[in-house]
Structure formats: structure tokens, C-alpha cells
Design brief:
mainly alpha
Amino acid sequence: MTAPEQDLLEEKIQTVRRRDRRFSRHAYYFVLDALDYTIQHLGREQMCGEERHVGGRELLAGIKEYAADQFGPMAALVFERWGVRNAGDFGEIVFNLIDAELLSRRASDSRLDFVDGIDFREAFAAKHRESLERIATR
């Protein structure tokens, strides 16, 4: 990303945050990075338009995996620090990014796609337990 593109992205995220102060700017950047991660993980990086689109449930799964990779057992605490308390908050962030024209949506996309999606605290705790068990059996 070039410096002018980065500046424009930062400006748009700051505009979003002036309207909605619930979430840290880091949460917005994280969602954009997690979307890239998810697109690659699903093998859609070469696709365009509808074929490339990631739905809410797919993105939540990508967020969970990307956060676990990036933050390990601290992921739930990082989310809390950013103001993200549940999966529905990621829906709010995504739709704020759509309103800022940083993401696009299908007509069928909804904030409800994110509600009751994943209990991140439990998902990260389970992933941490699995890691500890693998280490213990070596």
C-alpha cells in the first residue's frame, strides 16, 4: 500500500471512529487484515466480484484463526482492549467499514450474520488447551 493510500485509509477509519467510538482503530485494521487472511485461506485471492466475496460466518471463522495466530491465548484480551466483546461487534465494525466504502456487501449480507457466531473467549481458551496438550504429549 502506498503512503497516499495508507493516509486515505487512516482518514476514513478516523471518520468512522468520530461517528462510532466503541471500537479502537486497531480493531478496524485487524478486520481488514483478517479479511485478507480469510480470502487467502479460502483460496479466493485470484477471484473477483461475487466469487471473492466473504460472508459474515466465513469472516468470523477467519477472524478466529487469524487472531489465534497473531495473539495466541491473549486474543480475547486484545479484543476486549479494542472494545470488541462478542461476534456481533465484528458485524458492527464490518458495516462501519461498508458505510465508509472500504468494504462492499451483497444485498443478503446482514449484521445478523455475525450475531451468535462464535464465543471468542471459549474458542481461544480451547485452542490454547489444545496447544498445551500437544506440548505435553511430546
